[in-house]
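Protein modeling request. Please complete all fields; requests missing the sequence field cannot be processed.
Requester role: graduate student
Desired output: 3D structure, token encoding
Chains: 1
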Amino acid sequence: MKIELRVLGPNQTEVCLGRNMLFFSYGTVVAALIGQHWHVTDKKHSRTTKKHINRYFGEFKDFCYTPQEYLEAMVDKLV
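Delivered output (79 residues):
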């Protein structure tokens, strides 16, 4: 599996694991593309993390809110 790490900005990182992508803010996974579906954390994070998520997705709103625990479990499963 090909793994790519992209630093998108201060405290913003995207990790590509094959066809899956994980978006981290301050080292915490806050969004993930699993298969063909985007998942965004439903946990309330800091204002800056919320800005990171909004900047990452821009006008794209075709995602579902997912429990933080699910995203963390996906990281464990993919890594």
